[in-house]
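User: My instructor asked us to take a sequence, write out its structure as tokens, and then describe one feature of it. I'm not sure where to start. Here is the sequence I was given:
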Amino acid sequence: MSTQAKSAAPVALCDATLDQLPATVARPTYDRAALTPGIVHVGLGNFHRAHQAWYLHRLMQDGRAQDWAIIGAGVRAGDAVMREKLLAQDCLTTLIELDPKNSAVEVTGAMIDFLPVEEDNRALIACMTDPRIRIVALTVTEGGYFIAPGDGGLDFDHPDIRHDIARPEAPSTVFGAIVAGLKARRNAGSGPFTVQSCDNLQGNGDITRSVVVSLARATDPDLADWIDKQGAFPNSMVDCIVPATGAKELEMVRGFGIGDAVPVTHENFRQWVIEDRFCAGRPDWDLVGATFTNDVHAYEAMKIRILNAGHQVLANAGELLSIDTIAGCMADADIAAFFDKVQRTEIAPQVGAVPGMMPLSYVDLITDRFANPRIHDTTRRVAFDGLSRHRGFVHPIIRDALAAGQSITGLALVEALWARMCAGTREDGSIIVENDPAWARLQSAALAAKADPDVWLKGTEAYGAFAADPRFRDAFVNSLSQVWQNGTRATLQSYVA
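Assistant: Let's start with the prediction itself. The structure tokens for your sequence are:
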């Protein structure tokens, strides 16, 4: 650990200035000019650079994986901004680890290029045909997989998917680009690459396989069969709390003497559990702390249910009470007591143990991590895309608890708080700015649900069959009525009492 350095003129980050950085800043010890690519990663946000790219950087620091460097890519227009900023600093990233007692700073260099961001993904497809590329990895968020409501299959009605089926040679989605890249590989006889999801989805590899194979089958059934048989889509679980970068983080990196336009702050905890199923080789991430296992499901269930669902327990209550950060929520006695009771009595009973960790011990670990006051993780970021996050993280717990005949009172209150938040105002009267791709639909249902809660349960298409289960419906209706009539804080106190 190091104390924050003082510097009147931060050093502009790039390869040529690495030796000019303050002595307290760790930096690559490997020859970046000698690195060759092995991975294309789509979605170069903060999480990837603090997590997957860091594991690869650590291998490179040990003199390994020099032929596995990352080429960055994006499929959204906004990704071009990140590309411009990263290329200006030779794709280097400053990571600032925020321990409650101190900070450590490190510059990482596992990424060597960023492809042009194009509507037809021409450069991305061309790069994926390079036989040196053996893994195409994704962090495109939980809502970026084009999953149809209800059956969980590919959403063939989505306009982007319809576009990719009509024009497979010029796709607009990352999955269309992957199909095009795999088709070119098959035609060239170079074999497939592994497609590796690094998003917070339970069974993320299985979901990715389903999306890619289904999309391929819509235009080329033989290609779909080849991908399904020859390709690889390992499941994985990823974990590290990585806030968004804003003015505070930019000021922090300058305080360390570094001029980085896109620094990343993160907690002092990382975990990566990976199914060892790759069709074209892989880096030895396990040598720097990752876990390879044939049973990713148990790890991801623990993490997604306790951590990711736990975030939703906190974020909507925090938004309604005008608390800006997750650490601030944990410092609020009523929200913290609500979080603790829901976790211990309703979530943890639906989680199995993993080697070395029992569910209640993991609750304790998550409680400490969420309470870290140095991690400025906003309630707004955590609450974003609530429709995808509640469906993916919270609702499976409710279904399992209902099937087991166990309590869902607190989880029903979590859903009621989400519905109240989507009405678009905090309890102090301030406006909650649009915070979901489906915000207009959610807000309309949330406002109508004040008088008729069934509008929320039926109109959001979020709950499926258990919306009609009287145990859940009655608990939800009661909670939402209390929140509207008595306010969030009084309702939380009533539940805890």
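For the description part of your assignment, you could build on this observation: The CA atoms of residues 185 and 317 lie 49 Å apart. Try explaining in your own words what that tells you about the chain.
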